[in-house]
Predict the 3D structure of the following.
Amino acid sequence: MSSFKETAKGGSEPVPRAVQTVLDALEKLKFGAIQLTVHEGRLVQVDITERHRYPN
């Protein structure tokens, strides 16, 4: 997977911290889930569940 940029809209504005958290999780996560919690239209929480699989 290619690296995510730390700027938005063509590189002119910094990415908000919450959005950068999601981008970082996507970059690192191999198996799992990312759950976003929104209150009144604003992202307030990011939960990351990582799954580890082991051979028998």
Remarks:
- Residues 17-28 form the longest helix (12 residues).
- The chain is about 20% helix and 40% strand.
- Residues 7-50 form one domain.
- The mean pLDDT is 83.
